Automatic annotation (TrEMBL):
Keywords: Cytoplasm, Hydrolase, NAD, One-carbon metabolism
Amino acids binding substrate: 52, 124, 179, 183
Pfam families: AdoHcyase, AdoHcyase_NAD
Highest taxon of source: Bacteria
Protein name per the record: Adenosylhomocysteinase
GO molecular function, one term: adenosylhomocysteinase activity
One of the GO biological process terms: S-adenosylmethionine cycle
Protein species of origin: Actinomadura montaniterrae
Biochemical pathway: Amino-acid biosynthesis; L-homocysteine biosynthesis; L-homocysteine from S-adenosyl-L-homocysteine: step 1/1
Length: 418
Protein backbone atom coordinates (compact mmCIF):
# COMPACT_ATOMS: atom_id res chain seq x y z
CA UNK A 1 0.00 0.00 0.00
CA UNK A 2 1.46 3.33 -1.06
CA UNK A 3 2.06 6.24 1.33
CA UNK A 4 1.64 9.58 -0.45
CA UNK A 5 0.31 13.01 0.49
CA UNK A 6 -2.84 13.33 -1.62
CA UNK A 7 -4.04 11.06 -4.42
CA UNK A 8 -6.37 13.82 -5.67
CA UNK A 9 -3.30 15.61 -7.02
CA UNK A 10 -2.93 12.95 -9.70
CA UNK A 11 -4.52 15.00 -12.49
CA UNK A 12 -1.99 17.82 -12.08
CA UNK A 13 0.80 15.27 -11.87
CA UNK A 14 -0.22 13.60 -15.12
CA UNK A 15 -0.14 16.93 -16.96
CA UNK A 16 3.33 17.69 -15.68
CA UNK A 17 4.65 14.21 -16.45
CA UNK A 18 3.34 14.45 -20.01
CA UNK A 19 5.06 17.84 -20.38
CA UNK A 20 8.38 16.33 -19.30
CA UNK A 21 7.88 13.35 -21.60
CA UNK A 22 7.84 15.68 -24.61
CA UNK A 23 11.50 16.49 -23.94
CA UNK A 24 12.56 12.87 -23.40
CA UNK A 25 12.51 11.28 -26.88
CA UNK A 26 15.25 8.75 -26.15
CA UNK A 27 13.41 7.32 -23.16
CA UNK A 28 10.19 7.22 -25.20
CA UNK A 29 11.89 5.11 -27.86
CA UNK A 30 13.22 2.76 -25.20
CA UNK A 31 9.75 2.53 -23.63
CA UNK A 32 8.28 1.49 -26.97
CA UNK A 33 11.02 -1.11 -27.39
CA UNK A 34 10.51 -2.40 -23.84
CA UNK A 35 6.75 -2.74 -24.38
CA UNK A 36 7.45 -5.12 -27.28
CA UNK A 37 10.43 -7.03 -25.87
CA UNK A 38 9.50 -7.12 -22.13
CA UNK A 39 13.13 -7.48 -20.92
CA UNK A 40 12.14 -6.99 -17.26
CA UNK A 41 9.19 -9.40 -17.14
CA UNK A 42 8.49 -10.64 -13.63
CA UNK A 43 11.22 -8.61 -11.95
CA UNK A 44 10.59 -6.53 -8.83
CA UNK A 45 12.48 -3.25 -8.63
CA UNK A 46 12.89 -1.10 -5.52
CA UNK A 47 14.02 2.44 -6.28
CA UNK A 48 15.13 5.32 -4.05
CA UNK A 49 15.16 8.38 -6.31
CA UNK A 50 14.06 11.99 -6.55
CA UNK A 51 10.34 11.82 -7.24
CA UNK A 52 10.06 14.23 -10.12
CA UNK A 53 8.24 14.19 -13.44
CA UNK A 54 11.38 12.95 -15.18
CA UNK A 55 11.72 10.04 -12.74
CA UNK A 56 8.08 9.20 -13.44
CA UNK A 57 8.96 8.79 -17.13
CA UNK A 58 11.69 6.32 -16.15
CA UNK A 59 9.33 4.37 -13.88
CA UNK A 60 6.78 4.12 -16.70
CA UNK A 61 9.52 2.77 -18.97
CA UNK A 62 10.57 0.09 -16.49
CA UNK A 63 6.95 -0.95 -16.03
CA UNK A 64 6.48 -1.09 -19.80
CA UNK A 65 9.34 -3.58 -19.78
CA UNK A 66 7.45 -5.85 -17.41
CA UNK A 67 8.83 -4.80 -14.02
CA UNK A 68 6.82 -4.01 -10.90
CA UNK A 69 8.29 -0.95 -9.17
CA UNK A 70 8.25 0.28 -5.57
CA UNK A 71 9.52 3.85 -5.30
CA UNK A 72 10.78 5.81 -2.28
CA UNK A 73 12.16 9.33 -2.31
CA UNK A 74 15.90 10.02 -2.09
CA UNK A 75 15.28 13.54 -0.78
CA UNK A 76 12.16 14.79 1.07
CA UNK A 77 12.53 18.32 -0.32
CA UNK A 78 12.60 17.17 -3.94
CA UNK A 79 9.41 15.08 -3.78
CA UNK A 80 6.64 16.34 -6.04
CA UNK A 81 3.42 15.19 -4.38
CA UNK A 82 1.41 15.50 -7.59
CA UNK A 83 3.89 13.31 -9.46
CA UNK A 84 3.72 10.69 -6.70
CA UNK A 85 -0.09 10.77 -6.90
CA UNK A 86 -0.06 10.32 -10.67
CA UNK A 87 2.24 7.31 -10.46
CA UNK A 88 -0.04 5.66 -7.90
CA UNK A 89 -3.36 6.52 -9.50
CA UNK A 90 -2.55 6.21 -13.20
CA UNK A 91 0.35 3.75 -13.35
CA UNK A 92 -0.19 1.43 -10.41
CA UNK A 93 3.24 2.16 -8.97
CA UNK A 94 3.80 1.65 -5.26
CA UNK A 95 5.10 5.01 -4.03
CA UNK A 96 6.29 5.82 -0.52
CA UNK A 97 7.04 9.55 -0.38
CA UNK A 98 5.71 12.82 0.94
CA UNK A 99 7.24 16.25 0.40
CA UNK A 100 8.99 17.60 3.50
CA UNK A 101 8.84 14.42 5.55
CA UNK A 102 11.29 14.12 8.47
CA UNK A 103 14.32 11.83 8.67
CA UNK A 104 12.40 9.08 10.46
CA UNK A 105 9.68 9.08 7.82
CA UNK A 106 12.29 9.16 5.06
CA UNK A 107 13.88 5.92 6.22
CA UNK A 108 10.49 4.36 6.96
CA UNK A 109 9.63 4.86 3.29
CA UNK A 110 12.88 3.19 2.19
CA UNK A 111 12.00 0.22 4.38
CA UNK A 112 8.52 0.07 2.85
CA UNK A 113 9.97 -0.04 -0.65
CA UNK A 114 12.33 -2.83 0.38
CA UNK A 115 9.47 -4.84 1.86
CA UNK A 116 8.44 -5.67 -1.72
CA UNK A 117 11.44 -8.02 -1.91
CA UNK A 118 13.32 -6.53 -4.89
CA UNK A 119 15.28 -8.42 -7.52
CA UNK A 120 16.95 -5.19 -8.72
CA UNK A 121 17.53 -1.89 -6.91
CA UNK A 122 17.93 1.65 -8.23
CA UNK A 123 19.58 4.11 -5.87
CA UNK A 124 20.42 7.81 -5.82
CA UNK A 125 22.87 8.40 -2.99
CA UNK A 126 23.26 4.80 -1.74
CA UNK A 127 20.81 5.11 1.18
CA UNK A 128 18.68 2.21 -0.05
CA UNK A 129 21.69 -0.05 -0.65
CA UNK A 130 23.14 1.02 2.70
CA UNK A 131 19.88 0.17 4.47
CA UNK A 132 19.84 -3.24 2.77
CA UNK A 133 23.36 -4.04 3.97
CA UNK A 134 22.89 -2.81 7.55
CA UNK A 135 19.25 -3.27 8.53
CA UNK A 136 17.68 -5.61 5.95
CA UNK A 137 20.34 -8.24 5.40
CA UNK A 138 17.53 -10.83 5.29
CA UNK A 139 16.64 -9.50 1.82
CA UNK A 140 20.16 -9.62 0.38
CA UNK A 141 20.03 -13.19 -0.99
CA UNK A 142 17.26 -12.30 -3.46
CA UNK A 143 18.78 -9.04 -4.75
CA UNK A 144 20.46 -9.75 -8.06
CA UNK A 145 22.07 -6.37 -8.83
CA UNK A 146 21.46 -2.63 -8.94
CA UNK A 147 22.30 0.80 -10.34
CA UNK A 148 23.58 3.95 -8.66
CA UNK A 149 22.70 7.33 -10.14
CA UNK A 150 24.88 9.90 -8.36
CA UNK A 151 28.53 10.67 -7.58
CA UNK A 152 28.03 10.55 -3.82
CA UNK A 153 26.46 7.11 -4.04
CA UNK A 154 29.24 5.75 -6.25
CA UNK A 155 31.83 6.98 -3.74
CA UNK A 156 30.04 5.11 -0.95
CA UNK A 157 29.72 1.96 -3.06
CA UNK A 158 33.44 1.90 -3.86
CA UNK A 159 34.18 2.15 -0.14
CA UNK A 160 31.83 -0.77 0.55
CA UNK A 161 33.54 -2.80 -2.17
CA UNK A 162 37.01 -2.01 -0.80
CA UNK A 163 35.93 -3.22 2.63
CA UNK A 164 34.39 -6.39 1.17
CA UNK A 165 30.94 -5.35 2.40
CA UNK A 166 29.10 -5.13 -0.93
CA UNK A 167 27.02 -8.25 -1.43
CA UNK A 168 25.78 -7.88 -5.01
CA UNK A 169 26.93 -6.18 -8.24
CA UNK A 170 26.17 -2.46 -8.56
CA UNK A 171 26.55 -0.51 -11.79
CA UNK A 172 27.81 3.08 -11.62
CA UNK A 173 25.35 4.65 -14.04
CA UNK A 174 26.61 8.01 -12.81
CA UNK A 175 29.96 7.39 -14.51
CA UNK A 176 28.71 7.07 -18.09
CA UNK A 177 29.66 9.94 -20.37
CA UNK A 178 26.01 10.54 -21.26
CA UNK A 179 25.27 10.92 -17.56
CA UNK A 180 28.06 12.81 -15.84
CA UNK A 181 29.23 14.80 -18.85
CA UNK A 182 25.74 16.10 -19.59
CA UNK A 183 23.57 15.58 -16.50
CA UNK A 184 26.21 16.88 -14.10
CA UNK A 185 27.69 19.59 -16.27
CA UNK A 186 24.68 20.95 -18.13
CA UNK A 187 21.89 19.81 -15.80
CA UNK A 188 23.45 20.76 -12.46
CA UNK A 189 25.02 23.85 -13.97
CA UNK A 190 21.68 25.27 -15.09
CA UNK A 191 19.32 23.96 -12.41
CA UNK A 192 21.48 25.02 -9.45
CA UNK A 193 21.62 28.62 -10.60
CA UNK A 194 17.90 28.40 -11.37
CA UNK A 195 17.25 27.38 -7.74
CA UNK A 196 19.41 30.16 -6.33
CA UNK A 197 17.77 32.81 -8.48
CA UNK A 198 14.24 31.56 -7.72
CA UNK A 199 14.95 31.49 -3.98
CA UNK A 200 16.69 34.86 -3.69
CA UNK A 201 15.95 36.88 -6.85
CA UNK A 202 19.59 37.94 -6.71
CA UNK A 203 21.50 39.37 -9.66
CA UNK A 204 24.60 37.22 -10.26
CA UNK A 205 26.25 39.70 -12.62
CA UNK A 206 29.02 41.46 -10.72
CA UNK A 207 28.83 39.05 -7.78
CA UNK A 208 31.67 36.83 -6.57
CA UNK A 209 30.43 33.23 -6.78
CA UNK A 210 32.55 30.69 -4.90
CA UNK A 211 32.16 27.11 -6.14
CA UNK A 212 33.55 24.31 -3.98
CA UNK A 213 34.56 21.45 -6.27
CA UNK A 214 35.55 21.42 -9.93
CA UNK A 215 34.26 18.07 -11.08
CA UNK A 216 31.68 17.94 -13.84
CA UNK A 217 29.08 19.67 -11.64
CA UNK A 218 31.49 22.40 -10.61
CA UNK A 219 32.62 22.99 -14.18
CA UNK A 220 29.07 23.37 -15.38
CA UNK A 221 28.29 25.79 -12.59
CA UNK A 222 31.43 27.83 -13.19
CA UNK A 223 30.76 28.14 -16.92
CA UNK A 224 27.19 29.28 -16.41
CA UNK A 225 27.92 31.64 -13.54
CA UNK A 226 30.62 33.29 -15.62
CA UNK A 227 28.16 33.51 -18.50
CA UNK A 228 25.78 35.44 -16.22
CA UNK A 229 28.51 37.97 -15.44
CA UNK A 230 29.77 36.64 -12.11
CA UNK A 231 33.37 36.59 -10.97
CA UNK A 232 33.96 32.89 -10.25
CA UNK A 233 36.30 31.49 -7.59
CA UNK A 234 36.99 27.75 -7.37
CA UNK A 235 38.06 25.87 -4.24
CA UNK A 236 39.53 22.39 -4.67
CA UNK A 237 41.53 19.66 -2.94
CA UNK A 238 42.61 17.95 -6.17
CA UNK A 239 45.69 19.59 -7.79
CA UNK A 240 44.74 18.40 -11.29
CA UNK A 241 41.22 19.83 -11.07
CA UNK A 242 42.53 23.04 -9.51
CA UNK A 243 44.99 23.40 -12.38
CA UNK A 244 42.22 22.76 -14.89
CA UNK A 245 40.14 25.54 -13.29
CA UNK A 246 43.08 27.95 -13.34
CA UNK A 247 43.84 27.23 -17.01
CA UNK A 248 40.19 27.90 -17.83
CA UNK A 249 40.62 31.37 -16.36
CA UNK A 250 38.91 30.89 -13.00
CA UNK A 251 40.42 32.16 -9.75
CA UNK A 252 41.49 29.29 -7.46
CA UNK A 253 41.75 29.84 -3.70
CA UNK A 254 41.43 27.95 -0.42
CA UNK A 255 37.97 28.33 1.09
CA UNK A 256 39.40 30.34 4.02
CA UNK A 257 40.52 33.02 1.54
CA UNK A 258 37.47 32.87 -0.69
CA UNK A 259 35.13 33.15 2.32
CA UNK A 260 36.10 36.78 2.84
CA UNK A 261 35.07 38.00 -0.62
CA UNK A 262 32.32 35.62 -1.73
CA UNK A 263 28.74 36.77 -2.26
CA UNK A 264 27.35 33.35 -3.19
CA UNK A 265 28.80 29.99 -2.08
CA UNK A 266 27.86 26.73 -3.83
CA UNK A 267 29.14 23.33 -2.70
CA UNK A 268 29.31 20.37 -5.13
CA UNK A 269 31.97 18.07 -3.66
CA UNK A 270 30.27 14.98 -2.18
CA UNK A 271 32.12 15.60 1.11
CA UNK A 272 31.20 17.06 4.48
CA UNK A 273 32.01 20.37 6.21
CA UNK A 274 33.28 21.99 3.02
CA UNK A 275 31.93 25.25 4.42
CA UNK A 276 32.55 25.12 8.17
CA UNK A 277 32.45 27.41 11.21
CA UNK A 278 35.83 28.95 10.37
CA UNK A 279 34.57 29.99 6.95
CA UNK A 280 31.18 31.18 8.21
CA UNK A 281 32.93 33.50 10.67
CA UNK A 282 34.69 35.26 7.77
CA UNK A 283 31.76 35.80 5.43
CA UNK A 284 30.29 39.19 4.62
CA UNK A 285 26.81 40.34 5.53
CA UNK A 286 24.22 38.88 3.17
CA UNK A 287 26.35 35.99 1.87
CA UNK A 288 24.23 33.27 0.27
CA UNK A 289 24.92 29.59 1.02
CA UNK A 290 23.70 26.87 -1.34
CA UNK A 291 24.48 23.19 -1.72
CA UNK A 292 24.10 21.06 -4.85
CA UNK A 293 25.90 17.99 -3.53
CA UNK A 294 23.67 15.03 -2.76
CA UNK A 295 23.57 15.16 1.05
CA UNK A 296 23.02 18.10 3.40
CA UNK A 297 26.45 17.81 5.03
CA UNK A 298 28.58 19.97 2.76
CA UNK A 299 27.61 23.16 4.59
CA UNK A 300 27.95 22.79 8.37
CA UNK A 301 24.38 23.82 9.16
CA UNK A 302 24.74 22.83 12.82
CA UNK A 303 27.66 25.24 13.25
CA UNK A 304 25.62 27.97 11.56
CA UNK A 305 22.73 27.35 13.97
CA UNK A 306 25.07 27.52 16.95
CA UNK A 307 26.60 30.79 15.75
CA UNK A 308 23.23 32.45 15.13
CA UNK A 309 21.48 34.62 17.72
CA UNK A 310 18.29 34.62 15.64
CA UNK A 311 16.92 32.72 12.66
CA UNK A 312 14.29 34.09 10.29
CA UNK A 313 12.75 31.14 8.50
CA UNK A 314 11.05 31.54 5.17
CA UNK A 315 12.10 35.10 4.37
CA UNK A 316 11.57 33.85 0.82
CA UNK A 317 10.65 30.34 -0.37
CA UNK A 318 13.38 27.88 0.69
CA UNK A 319 15.35 30.80 2.18
CA UNK A 320 16.34 31.13 5.85
CA UNK A 321 18.29 34.05 7.29
CA UNK A 322 20.72 33.46 10.17
CA UNK A 323 21.62 36.56 12.22
CA UNK A 324 25.01 36.42 13.91
CA UNK A 325 26.06 38.18 17.12
CA UNK A 326 27.83 40.98 15.22
CA UNK A 327 24.73 41.67 13.13
CA UNK A 328 25.86 39.92 9.95
CA UNK A 329 23.19 37.91 8.16
CA UNK A 330 24.00 34.68 6.34
CA UNK A 331 21.36 33.28 4.00
CA UNK A 332 20.95 29.49 3.78
CA UNK A 333 18.97 28.01 0.91
CA UNK A 334 16.92 24.78 1.04
CA UNK A 335 18.16 23.90 4.56
CA UNK A 336 21.51 23.00 3.00
CA UNK A 337 19.91 20.30 0.85
CA UNK A 338 19.98 20.08 -2.94
CA UNK A 339 19.06 23.61 -3.95
CA UNK A 340 18.32 22.72 -7.57
CA UNK A 341 15.59 20.27 -6.55
CA UNK A 342 14.27 21.98 -3.41
CA UNK A 343 14.13 25.54 -4.75
CA UNK A 344 13.69 24.72 -8.45
CA UNK A 345 12.63 21.68 -10.48
CA UNK A 346 15.93 19.87 -10.87
CA UNK A 347 17.54 19.15 -14.20
CA UNK A 348 15.70 19.90 -17.44
CA UNK A 349 13.91 16.87 -18.82
CA UNK A 350 16.05 16.94 -21.98
CA UNK A 351 19.13 16.21 -19.86
CA UNK A 352 17.47 13.55 -17.71
CA UNK A 353 16.41 11.86 -20.96
CA UNK A 354 19.96 10.55 -21.33
CA UNK A 355 20.57 9.71 -17.67
CA UNK A 356 17.36 7.72 -17.37
CA UNK A 357 17.88 6.07 -20.75
CA UNK A 358 21.17 4.81 -19.29
CA UNK A 359 19.28 3.54 -16.25
CA UNK A 360 16.60 1.75 -18.27
CA UNK A 361 19.00 0.02 -20.67
CA UNK A 362 21.32 -0.96 -17.81
CA UNK A 363 18.40 -2.54 -15.94
CA UNK A 364 17.53 -4.55 -19.03
CA UNK A 365 21.16 -5.65 -19.37
CA UNK A 366 21.36 -6.61 -15.67
CA UNK A 367 18.25 -8.77 -15.99
CA UNK A 368 20.41 -11.37 -17.71
CA UNK A 369 24.02 -10.26 -17.06
CA UNK A 370 23.81 -10.21 -13.25
CA UNK A 371 24.65 -13.91 -12.94
CA UNK A 372 28.10 -13.39 -14.45
CA UNK A 373 29.00 -10.28 -12.41
CA UNK A 374 30.86 -10.40 -9.08
CA UNK A 375 29.76 -8.33 -6.08
CA UNK A 376 31.62 -5.17 -7.04
CA UNK A 377 31.09 -1.76 -8.64
CA UNK A 378 30.85 -2.09 -12.42
CA UNK A 379 30.85 0.35 -15.32
CA UNK A 380 27.93 0.56 -17.72
CA UNK A 381 28.82 -1.33 -20.92
CA UNK A 382 30.22 1.12 -23.46
CA UNK A 383 27.70 0.06 -26.08
CA UNK A 384 24.84 1.30 -23.86
CA UNK A 385 26.46 4.72 -23.47
CA UNK A 386 27.07 4.90 -27.22
CA UNK A 387 23.51 3.83 -28.04
CA UNK A 388 22.05 6.54 -25.81
CA UNK A 389 24.22 9.20 -27.44
CA UNK A 390 23.26 7.91 -30.90
CA UNK A 391 19.56 8.01 -30.10
CA UNK A 392 19.87 11.51 -28.63
CA UNK A 393 21.63 12.82 -31.73
CA UNK A 394 18.99 11.27 -33.96
CA UNK A 395 16.24 12.94 -31.91
CA UNK A 396 18.00 16.26 -32.51
CA UNK A 397 18.25 15.57 -36.28
CA UNK A 398 22.05 15.61 -36.05
CA UNK A 399 24.12 13.27 -38.26
CA UNK A 400 27.77 12.37 -37.82
CA UNK A 401 30.44 10.75 -39.99
CA UNK A 402 31.02 7.00 -40.10
CA UNK A 403 34.38 5.29 -40.43
CA UNK A 404 35.23 3.86 -43.82
CA UNK A 405 36.52 0.26 -44.00
CA UNK A 406 40.04 1.59 -44.60
CA UNK A 407 39.79 3.83 -41.55
CA UNK A 408 38.57 0.91 -39.44
CA UNK A 409 41.53 -1.19 -40.62
CA UNK A 410 43.96 1.64 -39.87
CA UNK A 411 42.68 2.10 -36.32
CA UNK A 412 42.88 -1.61 -35.59
CA UNK A 413 46.30 -2.32 -37.06
CA UNK A 414 49.73 -1.68 -35.61
CA UNK A 415 51.53 -2.57 -38.84
CA UNK A 416 50.57 0.54 -40.81
CA UNK A 417 52.98 3.41 -40.23
CA UNK A 418 53.24 6.92 -41.60
Amino acid sequence: MSDIADVSLAYEGVKRIEWADRSMPVLRQIRERFAKERPLDGLRIAACMHITTETACLIRTLQAGGASVALASSNPLSTQDDTAAALVQEDGTEVFARAGIDREGYYAHIHQALETGPDLVLDDGCDLVNTLHIERTDLLPTVKAGCEQTTTGVIRLHQMAREGALRFPMVAVNDTDTKHMFDNRYGTGQSTLDGIIRATNTLLAGKTVVIAGFGYCGRGLAERARGLGARVVITEIDPVKALDAALQGFAVQPMAEAAVDGDVFITVTGNRDVVNAEHLALMKDGAILANSGHFDVEIDVRALEEMAVAVHHGVRPQTDEYVLADGRRLVLLAEGRLVNLAAAEGHPAAVMDMSFADQALTCAWLATAHASLPAAVHDVPKEIDTEVARLKLASMAISIDLLTPDQEDYLHSWRIGS
